[in-house]
Amino acid sequence: MPELPEVETIRRGLVRAVIGLKLLSVETDNPKKFLGVDKDIVGARIKKVWRRAKVLIIDFDNGNSLLIHLKMTGQLIFEDKKGKRIKGGHPIPPLNLPVPNKSTHAIFKFDGGVMYFNDIRKFGWLLITLTSEISNLSFFVGLGPEPLEKEFNKKKLKEILTLKKNLKIKPVLLDQKVLSGIGNIYADESLFLAKIHPEERIVSLNDADLGALYDGIVTALKTGIKHKGASDSSYVDLGGEKGVFLTYANVYHRTGMECTYCKTKIERIVVGGRGTHFCPNCQKKKHIC
DNA sequence: CACTTGACCTGTCCGC
DNA sequence: TGCGGACAGGTCAAGT
Q: Is the pTM of this model over 0.90?
């Protein structure tokens, strides 16, 4: 479930914790999901930490980068030389999840601390490659725009959605080649804010709907970042702390609970094979499909 | 060709 | 209580 806000929260933690550190060693027990040659980054220092879609990218000062995709259950935990973790300033107590543990699949030792990669379901992947080659990776080719970038606006959203006009809106929001960074949680929340039914065909959305959708996407993602992400099971930030976004969610995982706006009971359906939460009163379908 | 479904994994939750 | 099965969600491959 790490989506854009969760990955961005971890990225910000990494910027605080690991910039300038020298990598001393790498261990992994899951080489199938750890591609590239670790020697290419051992001995180098971290120069920059950035993000594209849901992928974290750590640039080293020797022209190589470490890419990390957390997929559903991936976690990164950093402890400094004294075993201390960074604090996210959360209103809830830290979990103090011990590391390493049985889902730890990679350990990065630095001159200033240790970074653990945990992944219960082993869907995540790590890749070491030349920084200059990143944009040529198959994963990055064709990736849609970053929804929070300045260049992205209502006009762009309309342009890219129009190409998919016969499809239901929610699966398109999840398509990383259309827009990058949105996952199941923020797709549902964005559609609620825009008052659009998740099964609405794009063709039947008017300019006002698309404008509201743009605003909904931006608001949902920014609110997610503000609350350090959404933790419904295993997501934690770099300090091992949960995000609290779901406390503020309007529909996600609120099946049977009252809509925050109209008190109608939130419903759960399956759209494009994904659990989908919406308010049947606030998000009425325009046409019967 | 465009779109939908299943596989990848494992921990958690629900019902019998 | 114990066990089995459904379910969770990101992405790619396979299927329709």
A: yes
